[in-house]
Automatic annotation (TrEMBL), chain A:
Species this protein is from: Bombyx mandarina
Lineage, uppermost ranks: Eukaryota, Metazoa, Ecdysozoa, Arthropoda, Hexapoda
Residue ranges annotated for the Epoxide hydrolase N-terminal domain, each copy included: 52-161
Membrane topology value: Single-pass membrane protein
Protein's UniProt name: Epoxide hydrolase
Name of the gene this protein is made from: LOC114249827
A Pfam cross-reference name: EHN
Automatic annotation (TrEMBL), chain B:
Keyword Transmembrane helix attributed: yes
Location in the cell: Microsome membrane
UniProt xrefs under PANTHER family: EPOXIDE HYDROLASE, EPOXIDE HYDROLASE 1-RELATED
Gene (name only): LOC114243805
Annotated region (Disordered), positions in chain: 1-22
Protein name: microsomal epoxide hydrolase
Enzyme class: hydrolase
Segments traversing the membrane: 32-60
All residue ranges annotated as the Epoxide hydrolase N-terminal domain in the record: 89-201
Length: 461, 494
């Protein structure tokens, strides 16, 4: 009898793990959110300004002159090792052509005009001046204007959406709605103020954006995000299911214990977890983990020493360019690491990529942008265990071929039980809206179309 | 069921007996089935146990077997020109040119006048990295108090040289002891690490090269810059890991006429020194390390399991420096971001640090303060006012700056940690007499028994209740005392 127990007991324990993780484990409590938490200078709390002021991006003459001079003062860079392409990081042989272009050919005045083509605004939310673009289409009668909050990530900016916005806001006879876009800069990024004290992590940014949308008069809206935008959007959908009526993500990931468990089950029995054509996006796990190890050094240092690594990025344009463009190369397609030029011209012009750099350089916001990592990977924020709280909002994910990580629907559903669809495309990488604006916009519009159908069904009931 | 009725109907007299035999038959059938079942289970159990034991054996073997040394090619070439074999030893001087000074001062001004400089959070000490207030103090000293002309004179107080080894110009400082007829002069190779340099040894060198009572020997010091660091040339192709550096350093010593010598090393210097002692044991008279770590997988596993099972036993006297495990793991996670980045994308961060003096200054300052004492992270000043005067720290930073070598120095991380040679060599023991110096806040510390797996003739160890990673730099007297002590033991060991 005891021998039987020796076999049965461990088996029972083994069986109970999934039972516990997938069925019995109760989710952590919804975090207590302070919707009025103040992030700005305490003196300003007495006289809160709720106005929405128009804003214009300016590349001042002084700033441009100093930038050009600083680029000219650049030091000789160590040549790359033979044959390594971008495998040791940004290939310094590329720097001269990039820096020469930036200092001598990038048309600052023209690009400033380009960046101002959409209306920009600022409004003070919880002590921080939050910058955003708002693009409202002109619609004929019978077409409903529907608000969409577009959230960027790191090292991106609102610039990522410029090519997608015309497609997103287009009026079409195929749909009875048109999107109004609200695209803010994350706090500490670009033209949005940064917090003056610690604590502003992804969950707190979600609160800020909820308040932003409320300030702008929206009671219900859709949210789209990638990178940090996906994490913040996911937090918003978790906390505010009444306001957010649909969530679209192009970087859907859930890192709960149950998700990790299922990934390991799939390592043994892939067919249980993932469709065979997509198995190589997740398996073998050893490859996935070694790739993540290879690519997450930046995340490790930004999550622990943002102020150390940031100081040079505010001082050296060459440094900022290399640090940020390395991501635009590798995260677009990992194969680009073997190219000497990192394949940076594969998807974008120099102007497009430098536009994005200018939003970091002209605002000197690189350090405050990196602090989001330190705040969000703090034990305080991790202990909120947001990945273990389900999102009760209809969700749609767009999964590009070269996105940094992939999870199949059965794993995503642990976090997003109302997953309506997972669009899998055989192209594109991390900066999807920036890379493939038409495909991106088409999928977002399709998603919102479906969300609206669900909403109508609901209201009919 | 039907059988029973059948039996019943067949023989009424023998009913009880039949019943009994039926039940006995049934129960014995059940017993047989159960017996067979449990036998299968127990066989399966035994088989499972055997497999597990075999598995553990395989793991044990892989962790403890002594792999063959990789083939040693002492002539592998690393330079651009692989044809000339220049064996001259050329005198060298550190130069802080006027052009360099005006260039760096222009960059200082740019940063000083920058409008939107970093402003660190109040009351967070150094938990987000170097605090902007502390850095401002350091930076201000660099601009207004660091006297370039004086410092370069100081750096040239020892004789510098260059010599070409395997295609790379290797820079080194060579200091001969103050002559004394009765005292034997023994060669000592001093190996620095990252983000250090030969500067780390400047205060210790006079102590090492001066005869002292109770000792019948004195040191002649050879302190090179590792390839790719400061004035030592960097390779043009990948592959120059610590193993190859060991060969270069050994060939350097041979170039200088030394076929037997002592080695002292910390940080990467410890790894390189260990490799030399492993690959060329007959040439190394003794090895002193202030970074006493066994880098094998077995040691790592022992440390982890020991922490879970029995820290005081596995810690063997230094458990307060190795455990609690959870605290240590959190500490390593918190402090190894720089290593993770440099082991994967050295050239990217290298570009930032090459182009900006404040970048280089704060990045190196960060590591110096945390490696010296990790509790500095919770001090507003980060301890910058406590351990080293600013000139000392800036001398080291300036050596990286004027040589433009920060990027090539970072590559040692990718070359070393991306391959498997580090672990393989760790599993090859060496009988070269060894001594371990443990300062309190050194980052990795292993007890003597663990060191003996690799250094079979570990003659002793010194545990100090103070001090950190940069032993020679921070505690030149304790450092030199211990090197003398160790080499005395080496000389008496037969």
């Amino acid at each position: 009898m005891s021998r039987l127990l020796l076999i049965v007991l461990p088996l029972l324990v083994l069986a109970s793990i999934p039972l516990y993780l997938l069925v019995l484990k109760s989710p952590p409590p919804m975090p207590k959110l302070d919707l009025e938490e103040w992030w700005g200078p305490p003196e300003l709390k007495q006289k809160q300004d709720t106005s929405i002021k128009p804003f214009e991006i300016t590349f001042s003459e002084t700033m441009v002159k100093e930038l050009k001079e600083r680029i000219k003062k650049r030091r000789p860079f160590a040549p790359p090792l033979e044959g390594v392409g971008f495998k040791y990081g940004f290939n310094s042989k590329q720097l001269d052509s990039w820096l020469k272009y930036w200092a001598e050919e990038y048309p600052f005045a023209e690009r400033q005009k380009f960046l101002n083509q959409y209306p920009h605004f600022k409004t003070n939310i919880q002590g921080l001046n939050i910058h955003f673009m708002r693009i409202t289409p002109k619609v004929p009668k019978g077409v409903e204007i529907v608000p969409l909050l577009l959230l960027h990530g790191w090292p991106g900016s609102v610039r990522e959406f410029y090519e997608a916005i015309p497609h997103l806001t287009a009026v079409s006879k195929d749909r009875n709605f048109a999107l109004e876009i609200i695209a803010p800069s994350l706090p500490g990024y670009g033209f949005s103020d940064a917090a003056v004290r610690p604590g502003l992590a992804a969950a707190e940014v979600a609160v800020i954006f909820k308040n932003l949308m409320a300030r702008l008069g929206y009671k219900q809206y859709y949210v789209q995000g990638g990178d940090w935008g996906a994490l913040i959007g996911s937090a918003m959908a978790t906390f505010f299911p009444k306001e957010i009526i649909g969530f679209h993500s192009n970087m859907a990931l859930t890192l709960s214990p149950a998700a990790t468990f299922l990934e390991f089950v799939g390592a043994l029995f892939p067919s249980l977890i993932v469709e065979p054509e997509l198995a190589n996006r997740l398996y073998p796990l050893s490859e996935k983990y070694s790739t993540l190890l290879e690519e997450l050094g930046y995340m490790h240092i930004q999550a622990t020493k943002p102020d150390t690594v940031g100081i040079g990025l505010t001082d050296s344009p060459a440094g900022l360019l290399a640090y940020i463009l390395e991501k635009f190369s590798t995260w677009t397609n990992p194969d680009l690491r073997s190219k000497e030029d990192g394949g940076l011209s594969y998807r974008w012009t120099k102007d497009q990529l430098i536009d994005n750099l200018m939003l970091y350089w002209s605002t000197k916001s690189i350090v405050t942008s990196m602090r989001l990592y330190a705040e969000s990977f703090s034990s305080r924020h991790l202990n909120l265990k947001l990945d273990e709280i389900q999102v009760q909002v209809p969700t749609w994910v767009l999964q590009a071929k070269y996105e940094l990580a992939y999870q199949p629907p059965c794993i995503l559903k642990l976090k997003y039980p109302k997953l309506v669809n997972a669009s899998v495309i055989e192209d594109g990488g991390h900066f999807l809206a920036f890379e493939l604006p038409e495909i991106f916009a088409k999928d977002v519009l399709k998603a919102i179309g479906e969300f609206r159908k669900l909403k109508n069904v609901k209201t009919e009931l | 069921m039907s059988k029973k009725t059948k039996n019943k109907s067949v023989n009424v007299n023998n009913l009880d007996k039949n019943e009994k035999s039926k039940t006995t038959k049934d129960s014995s059938k059940f017993k047989i089935v159960f017996g067979v079942f449990s036998k299968i289970i127990s066989y399966l159990f035994v088989v499972k146990a055997l497999f597990t034991i075999y598995g553990i054996y395989l793991v044990y073997v892989s962790l403890t077997n002594v792999p063959d040394l990789p083939k040693v090619d002492v002539n592998v070439r690393w330079g651009v020109d692989n044809n000339t074999h220049d064996t001259r030893i050329r005198p060298y001087r550190v130069i802080f040119s006027d052009a360099m000074e005006s260039e760096i001062r222009a960059l200082f001004e740019d940063y000083r006048l920058m409008e939107r400089k970093i402003k660190s959070f109040k009351n967070t000490a150094w938990t987000y990295g170097v605090h902007s207030d502390a850095f401002a103090q350091f930076f201000s000293h660099w601009i207004f108090k660091y006297k370039f002309r004086e410092r370069v004179k100081f750096l040239n107080k020892y004789d510098h040289f260059l010599t070409n080894i395997q295609g790379l110009d290797i820079h080194f400082v060579h200091v001969k002891p103050k002559a004394d007829k009765d005292v034997k002069v023994v060669p000592l190779l001093l190996l620095h690490g990252w983000p250090g340099s030969v500067r780390e040894f400047y205060e210790a060198i006079p102590l090492l090269t001066t005869p002292r009572p109770d000792y019948d020997f004195v040191f002649e010091v050879i302190a090179p810059s590792l390839p790719g660091f400061v004035f030592s040339e960097a390779p043009t192709r990948p592959g120059l890991d610590t193993y190859e550096m060991a060969i270069i350093m050994r060939n350097l010593m041979r170039r200088l006429g030394y076929t037997q010598y002592y080695i002292q090393g910390g940080d990467f210097g410890h790894m390189i020194g260990s490799h030399i002692a492993t690959i060329f044991p007959s040439e190394v008279l003794g090895f002193h390390t202030n970074f006493p770590a066994n880098t094998s997988k077995l040691s790592l596993l022992t440390w982890l399991l020991g922490g879970l099972l029995w820290p005081s036993y596995f810690g063997n006297g230094i458990e307060d420096r190795m455990y609690p495990l959870k605290d240590k793991l959190e500490f390593y996670l918190e402090e190894t971001g720089y290593s993770h980045l440099q082991s994967t994308k050295p050239d990217t961060i290298g570009i930032v640090l090459t182009d900006s003096p404040v970048a280089l200054g704060s990045y190196i300052l960060d590591r110096f303060m945390i490696f010296t004492n990790h509790t500095n992270k919770f001090e507003d000043e980060g301890g910058i006012d406590k351990y080293y005067d600013f000139d000392k720290l800036l001398d080291n930073i300036m050596l990286y700056w004027v040589s433009g070598s920060i990027t090539t120095s970072l590559r040692i991380y990718k070359e070393t940690f991306a391959g498997s040679r580090l672990n393989n060599l760790a599993q090859v023991p060496t009988s070269v007499p060894t001594w371990a110096l443990r300062l309190k806040y050194e980052l990795f510390q292993h007890p003597d028994y663990m060191l003996r797996w690799k250094y079979t003739n570990l003659l002793g160890s010194t545990n100090l209740d103070y001090g950190g990673h940069f032993a020679a730099f921070e505690r030149p007297k304790d450092f030199s005392d211990d090197v003398f002590k160790a080499v005395k033991a080496f000389r008496n060991f037969k």
